[in-house]
């Protein structure tokens, strides 16, 4: 269909030129055809339309008996040169398009290696995550998140490297790799935070540019959700507190006692206080990075995350993040100025069991539909 339009245009211009008076010259309009073809087709098809346009110009000159005249020859040369330029630009555009597609493919693969997709369910939690990179044409940047199952608890991390986009990936990779290893080795969040701080410090010693000495750091929030307690323990290293969306629709912003961000100063476990807050069944935690609350609309108003999230407090984590993401992009009215990471964490009710110890199973309970939705 895209090729048909310029071909029809060549035919129409040729017919119009032959039926109009001799003082009306429409042949120069034929250059529109290859220019239009370049929007829809590649260089070979565009060149074919250009050849057709040159042939039509020659036909018009022959039909009028002026093919050998200086005016028609100039028109033919100009049409040929312009068509050649259009074909060259079309070829360059297609090559850059292939390069961009390759870059996107590599970025997507790097994101999958660096940011492992969070499982939909981990222990007694339902999880969902969203990542939006601020870097043009990139899919990764300086925000990070991870989750790990450790014994009878789930540990989560969300963080933000100073800066944005591709230059911040190095620190993000260090923190994620250290968390995935250390999350299973340390009994408490303070010890885990100190281990992450040591990893970042070693990385900065080796790779921090001299002109940025002391200016690169990572804020992180560590969470531990035990299976047998309706609570969540949090340790903040300069990161934002999460929102607690209760089952009744209320929104709470906990007051945390943050430690310095990773990489500012080497810290020990006692430098990282632990805050505890209630986290009951059907409550949802919304973790986020500062790119969310720093997004501005055209009037310069920051995105009111707590107010907006309250209206979706009863949603499942994936639906909650979809609502917030769409609303955030609409609020910004264009590209975001910083990387954005969001995690939704909901404590799911324990699966009901109709066959309890000490009770004889009713007929059909062991082999029929028990009516229990284990996904909930």
Could you state the order of secondary-structure elements as H and E?
Answer: HHHHEEEEHHEEEEEEHHHE
Which shape, going by the Cα principal axes? elongated
Low-pLDDT runs: 353-376
Helix content: 40-55%
Q: Tell me the Rg in angstroms.
A: 31 Å
Work out the strand percent: 15-25%
Decide which structural class fits the backbone. alpha+beta
N- to C-terminal distance? 49 Å
Physical arrangement of strands within the biggest beta sheet: 1-2-11-10-7-8
Number of strands: 11
Counting DSSP H or I runs of 4 or more residues, the number of helices is 9
Specify the biggest β-sheet: 6 strands, antiparallel
Query: How would you state the average pLDDT, rounded?
Result: 84
Annotate the secondary structure layout.
Elements: H1 4-19, H2 32-40, H3 43-64, H4 70-114, E1 121-122, E2 125-132, E3 143-150, E4 153-161, H5 169-182, H6 189-207, E5 218-226, E6 231-237, E7 243-245, E8 251-252, E9 275-278, E10 284-288, H7 290-293, H8 305-310, H9 317-332, E11 340-347
Describe, in plain words, how this protein is organized in 3D.
The protein is α+β, with helices and mostly antiparallel strands and 376 residues long. It has 9 helices and 11 strands. It has a 6-stranded antiparallel beta sheet. Mean pLDDT is 84; it is low at 353-376.
Quick summary of this structure?
The chain is an alpha+beta fold and 376 residues long. Helix content is 40%, strand content 17%. The strands form two sheets. A six-stranded antiparallel sheet has the order 1-2-11-10-7-8. Strands 3-4-5-6-9 form a five-stranded antiparallel sheet, with helices on one face.
């Amino acid at each position: 269909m895209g090729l048909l339009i310029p071909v029809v245009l060549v035919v129409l211009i040729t017919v119009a030129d032959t039926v109009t008076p001799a003082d009306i010259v429409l042949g120069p309009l034929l250059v529109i055809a290859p220019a239009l073809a370049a929007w829809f087709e590649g260089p070979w098809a565009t060149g074919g339309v250009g050849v057709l346009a040159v042939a039509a110009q020659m036909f018009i000159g022959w039909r009028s008996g002026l093919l050998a005249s200086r005016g028609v020859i100039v028109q033919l040369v100009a049409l040929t040169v312009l068509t050649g330029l259009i074909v060259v630009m079309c070829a360059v555009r297609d090559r850059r398009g292939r390069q961009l597609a390759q870059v996107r493919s590599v970025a997507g693969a790097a994101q999958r290696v660096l940011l492992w997709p969070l499982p939909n369910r981990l222990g007694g939690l339902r999880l969902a995550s969203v990542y939006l990179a601020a870097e043009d044409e990139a899919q990764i940047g300086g925000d990070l998140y991870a989750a790990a199952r450790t014994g009878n608890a789930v540990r989560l991390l969300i963080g933000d490297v100073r800066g944005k986009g591709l230059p911040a990936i190095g620190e993000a990779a260090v923190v994620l790799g250290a968390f995935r290893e250390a999350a299973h080795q340390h009994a408490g969040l303070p010890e885990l935070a100190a281990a992450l701080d040591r990893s970042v410090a070693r990385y900065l010693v080796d790779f921090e540019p001299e002109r940025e000495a002391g200016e690169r750091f990572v804020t992180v929030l560590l969470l531990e959700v035990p299976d047998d307690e309706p609570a969540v323990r949090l340790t903040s290293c300069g990161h934002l507190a999460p929102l607690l969306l209760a089952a009744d629709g209320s929104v709470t912003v906990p007051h945390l006692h943050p430690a310095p961000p990773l990489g500012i100063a080497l810290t020990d476990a006692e430098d990282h206080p632990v805050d505890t807050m209630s986290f009951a069944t059907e409550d949802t935690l919304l973790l986020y990075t500062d790119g969310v609350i720093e997004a501005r609309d055209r009037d310069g108003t920051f995105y009111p995350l707590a107010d907006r999230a309250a209206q979706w407090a009863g949603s499942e984590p994936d639906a909650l993040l979809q609502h917030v993401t769409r609303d955030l992009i609409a609020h910004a009215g264009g590209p975001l100025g910083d990387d954005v990471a969001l995690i939704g964490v909901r404590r799911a009710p324990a699966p009901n069991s109709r066959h309890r110890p000490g009770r004889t199973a009713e007929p059909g309970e062991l082999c029929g539909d028990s009516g229990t939705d284990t996904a909930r």
